[in-house]
Specification:
The chain has twelve helices and 19 strands. The chain is of the alpha/beta class. The chain folds into three domains: about 110 residues, no CATH class; about 240 residues, FAD/NAD(P)-binding domain; about 70 residues, no CATH class. Strands 1, 2, 8, 9, 10, 11 and 19 form a seven-stranded mixed β-sheet that branches. Strand 10 and strand 11 form a beta hairpin. Helix 3 packs across helix 8, helix 8 packs antiparallel against helix 9 and helix 11 packs across helix 12. Bound molecules: flavin-adenine dinucleotide (FAD). Flavin-adenine dinucleotide binds next to helix 2, strand 2, strand 9, helix 6 and strand 13.
């Protein structure tokens, strides 16, 4: 394969990527080595899903000494459609969970973002910030999610793999904010069902969130949603120190489409290339994302070497529920985290770091509620979310609605690309790395955007909490 040759002389990560690399970590062991699951199990907290949000919740809950069962319907390692980009926000959470040494030892660390639009390119390093590192990593979800789940197991959580929560233990009658009480869990290897009862359930089952919906969560349909598709390519620039984002992707008619294209170097011979779109576009419904990705691959800078012949497999896509558009996020005995809560940042489509953060917040609130014996305290989770993201996401939702209009986007981005400081301030804002305690230009620009969004979206964006 071409990628083998491309590894020559790169120094790091040699031979790490193999199309079907065996996974040898503890969480990847075959089911024959796991004991059969009991028909009944009770625990303090049942976490449904071991993606970023579920594994983070499980880690922080286990650290509190709680009895935590995590059920994951797949077996690690498992692929998950993603851009594989970790920003400084995500890296901070991984560092605080103790996973960063694994990342720095074997995965690609990058310095910042290169924005490309209307024939210009601007390289911008991640800013210095007292709370966040000034670098990111790229790592496939195939590798990342197993590492973080394993870390939760090391902290004391019990992980059931190939174990699917099929329905809450409580009866379906009543609808609305009914309690969960736990879940019936299918062992997908053996076909048996276990009743896992729990004092609290953390719903971390991703964007489709069947369990969340069974408990009464819904998405606010008029708020923006993302849709994205990605593929892997072998590339001579696989160890580039900047991730790249293209702000002027076009459809077959040459029209600028609201959204962006990305090329994220993985440092192991491959890059992850994809496109993301927003539902705020009038043309959203008719867009063929596979075709759009093909077009992006065709006009991406040649130096990346993207082409059908360097493609490493068919692209896959998914939905990005964003801006806290899914709720309620706290029920009588359950909390909803990550994509299941619509926690993706609308400004940039980042969801891994927000999965870690919301998982951690839910763990902290659940631990307090369980400690006091008063589950009414679970409501504090919604307050935490609003405090952390409410205003920022309202601004982001309003911003993406406005910028989706090509008549606004074209002059704004076109001019911005000539004014480096403005683009650097926007990078800070869009990656949620401003410093509210300062009165610097990015903070002033954010306040201006917030003011404008308040005027434009006052009722919808600020008061409509689902
Ligand atoms: C194409 C694309 C590109 C993206 N690129 C990026 C990026 O570069 N950076 C970034 O930060 N974000 C990116 N995102 C967003 C990111 O992937 C998500 O925000 C993130 O995965 C959310 O984590 P989560 O834990 O909430 O959900 P998930 O990662 O979806 O995890 C949910 C887990 O729950 C399991 N599960 C589901 N139902 C059940 C059940 N009933 N019982 C047991 N287990 C269950 C699933 O198997 C899965 O493992 C991208 C998304 C897409 C679609």
């Amino acid at each position: 394969m071409g990628w083998l040759r491309l590894h020559a002389g790169t120094g790091r990560n040699l031979n790490r990527y193999r199309p079907s690399a065996p996974y040898t970590r503890g969480v990847g062991k075959p089911s024959s080595l796991e004991p059969p699951r009991p028909p009944e199990r009770s625990c303090d907290v049942l976490v449904v899903g071991a993606g970023p949000s579920g594994s983070a919740a499980a880690y922080w809950l286990a650290r509190e000494g709680l009895d935590v069962v995590v059920v994951e319907k797949k077996r690690f390692p498992r692929a998950k459609t993603c851009g594989d980009g970790l920003t400084p926000r995500a890296v901070r959470q991984l560092a605080e969970m103790g996973v960063e040494p694994e990342l720095s030892a074997s995965y690609h660390r990058y310095q910042g973002l290169r924005s490309v639009a209307f024939g210009r390119a601007l390289e911008m390093a991640w800013p210095e910030h007292p709370e966040f590192p000034s670098y990111g990593y790229t790592i496939t979800r195939h590798d990342l999610d197993g590492l973080v789940a394993e870390n939760a197991v090391k902290a004391g959580a019990e992980l059931w793999q190939n174990a699917e929560a099929v329905e809450p233990l409580s009866s379906a009658e009543g609808g609305g904010r009914r309690p969960a009480r736990g879940a019936r869990v299918l062992d997908r290897d053996r076909g048996s069902i276990s009743a896992v009862s729990a004092r609290v359930v953390v719903v971390a089952d991703g964007s489709l969130t069947r369990v969340g919906r069974a408990l009464g969560t819904e998405r606010v349909k008029r708020w923006p949603q993302g849709m994205a598709i990605r593929g892997y390519f072998s590339s001579p620039r696989h160890d580039d120190l900047f991730i790249e984002s293209h702000l002027d992707i076009r459809d077959s008619g040459g029209n600028v489409v609201p959204g962006y294209g990305w090329i994220f170097p993985l440092g192991d011979g491959r890059v992850n290339a994809g496109i993301g779109l927003l539902s705020t576009s009038a043309r959203w419904k008719g867009v063929n994302t596979t075709k759009l990705l093909e077009q992006f691959v065709a006009y991406a800078p040649r130096s990346w070497g993207l082409s059908p012949t360097t493609s490493l497999g068919p692209p896959t896509g998914g939905r990005l529920p964003m801006g806290l558009a899914v709720g309620p996020r706290a029920g009588p005995d359950w909390l909803v985290v990550g994509d299941a809560a619509g926690s993706i940042n609308p400004f940039n489509g980042e969801g891994i770091g927000y999965g870690y953060e919301t998982g951690r917040m839910a763990a902290e609130v659940a631990a307090e509620a369980l400690d006091s014996g008063d589950l009414a305290l679970l409501r504090a989770y919604e307050d935490r979310l609003q405090q952390e993201y409410g205003r920022y996401y309202a601004v982001a939702r309003a911003f993406v609605k406005v910028i989706s209009n090509p008549r606004v986007m074209r002059p704004c981005v076109g001019t911005g690309m000539y004014v480096r400081p403005v683009m650097e301030w926007m990078l800070r804002i869009m990656a949620n790395l401003t410093r509210p305690e300062l009165a610097g230009p990015p903070e002033a620009l954010y306040r201006a955007l917030a003011g404008a969004s308040k005027l434009a979206e006052l009722r919808d964006a600020v008061t409509a909490v689902p």
